[in-house]
């Protein structure tokens, strides 16, 4: 009896959430014309955004195809770290991470559907005396920023009208 009540309550909650249009963050409605894309990242340098971008596109039902009619071209990606605050003895107290990705979308004829676009993410973190902890925090922030940049690129891609 208790199991039945719990199951019914869970089913009711699921029904209410789906009825109100709730969707987890990062899931988008993809227009039919944008459901196939070729992702082009320059091979002459390593890319940190390629895999998060491809994963997010696939999760949203976009097929990655080398012969697709649209090309999402990553022009440049950059991640930089700078010092924000120093102590009187010139020890760093605070850092800022800034990530940017420049991209454009081209049709099958190579004509730009959009001008060059840019996605940008920023994070500030404090210096920790423990070097291992600071490095781990920085690595985690960089990974989160790559995910955020990928989401921005996908949102801008999906806002296009081919």
Helix share bin = 25-40%
Mean pLDDT comes to 85
How many structural domains?
A: 1
Order of helices and strands: HEHEEEEH
| Uncertain parts | none
Distance between the termini: 55 Å
Strand content: 25-35%
Radius of gyration: 21 Å
Task: Indicate the multimeric state.
Answer: single chain
For the largest beta-sheet, the strand count, sense and barrel status come to: 5 strands, mixed
What name goes with the CATH superfamily? Lipoprotein like domain
Kindly describe this structure.
With 162 residues, the protein is an alpha/beta fold. It has a single domain (32-158), classed as Double Stranded RNA Binding Domain, CATH 3.30.160.150. The chain has three helices and five strands; from the N terminus they run αβαββββα. Strands 2-1-3-4-5 form a five-stranded mixed β-sheet, with helices on one face. The model has no long low-confidence stretch (mean pLDDT 85).
Key structural traits:
single chain, 162 residues, alpha/beta, Double Stranded RNA Binding Domain, 5-stranded mixed sheet
Topology:
Elements: H1 2-19, E1 36-40, H2 50-59, E2 63-64, E3 71-86, E4 92-106, E5 117-126, H3 131-158
Parallel strand pairs: 1-2, 1-3
Antiparallel strand pairs: 3-4, 4-5
